[in-house]
Amino acid sequence: MDPLWSQWWVWGVAAIALAVGEVLLPSYLLLGFGIGAGIIAFLLLIGVPVAASLPILLVVFAVLSLISWLGLRRWLGVYQGQVKNFDHDIND
Q1: Which of 43, 39, 41 is nearest to 71 (CA)?
Q2: How far apart are CA 43 and CA 8, in angstroms?
Q3: Distance CA 32, CA 65 (A)
Q4: Are 31 and 51 in contact, with CB atoms under 8 Å apart?
C-alpha cells in the first residue's frame, strides 16, 4: 500500500481545508496553498508519477503553491490608484 502522503484524497481534503481556511483568513495565502494541494491531488488522481518521494512531492507542491499565489496576487491584488492616501487630518 502507498504511503498516506501519496494518496490523492489526502491532498484533496487538504485543498478543501485550506480553501475553507481562506474564508477565515482572507489574504490569498491559504488559497494559494489550497490551489497547489488541489493540483497535486489532480496529478495523483490521473496517475502522474509526482509522488516518487516525499521531498520531490513537497518541492512540486511548494512551486505550484508559489505560482498560484503569485497569480492570485496579480489577478486579485491591489491595482495602481486603488489605495487612497490621506494627507490631512479630519480634526483640522
Answers
A1: 39
A2: 8
A3: 5
A4: no
Dihedral class, residue 82 (left if φ above 0, else alpha if ψ from -120 to 50, else beta): alpha
**CA 72, CA 49: separation in Å to the nearest integer?**
27
How far apart, in whole angstroms, are the C-alpha atoms of residue 79 and residue 55?
36
Which amino acid type is present at position 83?
V
pLDDT in tens, the chain (92 residues): 567 667 888 999 999 999 899 888 877 778 889 999 999 999 988 888 877 788 888 999 999 999 998 888 888 766 666 666 677 777 76
Q: Could you tell me the maximum CA-CA distance found in the chain, to the nearest angstrom?
A: 72
* Residue in the structure block whose three cell numbers are 497569480: 71
The residue with cell 483568513 is 25
**In this predicted structure, what is the pLDDT of residue 75?**
81
